[in-house]
Amino acid sequence: MDNASYIALSRQLTLRRELDISANNMANMNTNGYKFEQLLVHQEYGAPAYNAPIRTPANFAYDNEVGRDFSQGTFQITGAPLDFAIDGDGVFFTVQTADGEAYTRDGAFTMNAEGMLMTQDGYPVVGDGGPITMDPKKGQPAVSEDGIITQDYQGQAERVGKLNLVRITDMSDLKKAGNGTYTLTSNATPVPATDARVRQGFLEASNVNPMIEVTKLIEINRAYTTLAGIIQQQHDLNKSAVERLGRVT
User: Fold this and answer.
1) How far apart are CA 194 and CA 213, in angstroms?
2) What residues pair up with 110 in beta bridges, in sequence order?
3) For the chain, N or C: smaller number of CB within 10 Å?
4) Where does the record place it (predicted)?
5) Contact between residue 112 and residue 104 where contact means Cβ atoms under 8 Å apart
């Protein structure tokens, strides 16, 4: 197999992963707070073998990890008192997982029997004093734009806690941790997001554009088929050359 086939094969490998990522985007287009992903593909220089000086170097397709678009999705009105959306890019809710603190944009929260505010996957939501716990016997919680949660009791608004909204300075420090959460891959420390605003009764939709993803899936399949044809043509040429060489000798 010569350079043309190797190059085509390297691109096919990245296309297969692009297909998986694009399909995952489509599968999560209705997931709260989901962020669009794409494969970062670069050229990788391939030097010729030292004992084959007549062969020229080649640039191969190289998978350089997954990039994410953390731009804010649109808000959807739910009216539910425990649904929250963050108005502000790069800002996250803080939740407590078995492996430590994690961060999410999915504000579809719930309350357990003890009154603890939790994610749909059972992670406690962290406030300024730790996990936020409300009194199930009191009124529905109200949340101000700066994240302060209060409950009505005998006509008085009692402070319950404050959502811990944090800003991640470098998004490349975030790693997916499952269930719509991210963790930090470095020793970076998130900073309080004092300029972000909480919208109660709203949820942030995914920022995936379904039309773009459908188009991309078609392009990926066409490109993969074209490269398969190039590899087959190269195989046929090599086979023909060997057969002709055999007849000459």
Assistant:
1) 35
2) 118
3) C
4) Bacterial flagellum basal body
5) no
Write out the H or E segment, with its range, that includes residue 151: strand 148-153
Which of these, 22, 48, 49, lies nearest to 36 by C-alpha position?
Answer: 22
Instruction: List the chain domain ranges.
Output: 3-70+208-248, 75-204
Dihedral angle sign, alpha carbons of residues 27, 69, 102, 110: negative
Helix runs in the chain, H state only: 3-27, 210-248
**pLDDT in 10s for each residue of the chain, 249 residues:** 466 777 788 888 889 999 999 999 999 999 999 999 999 887 766 655 454 554 566 677 777 788 899 999 999 999 999 999 999 989 999 999 998 999 999 999 999 999 999 999 999 999 988 999 999 888 889 999 999 999 988 778 899 999 999 999 899 899 999 899 999 988 888 999 989 999 999 999 999 999 999 999 999 999 989 888 888 777 777 777 666 766 655
- Which residues are within 8 A (CB) of 164 and not within 5 positions of it... i.e. 6 or more apart? 93, 94, 126, 127, 128, 147, 192
Contact (CB, 8 A) for 161 and 146:
no
Structure tokens at 201: 């009764």
Q: Rounded to two decimals, what is the model's pTM?
A: 0.81
Provide φ and ψ at 162, rounded to 5°: -135, 130
Contacts of residue 236, defined as CB under 8 A and 6 or more positions apart, other chains included, come to none
Crossing angle, helix 3-27 and helix 210-248, to 10 degrees?
A: 160
CA nearest 133: which of 173, 161, 174?
161
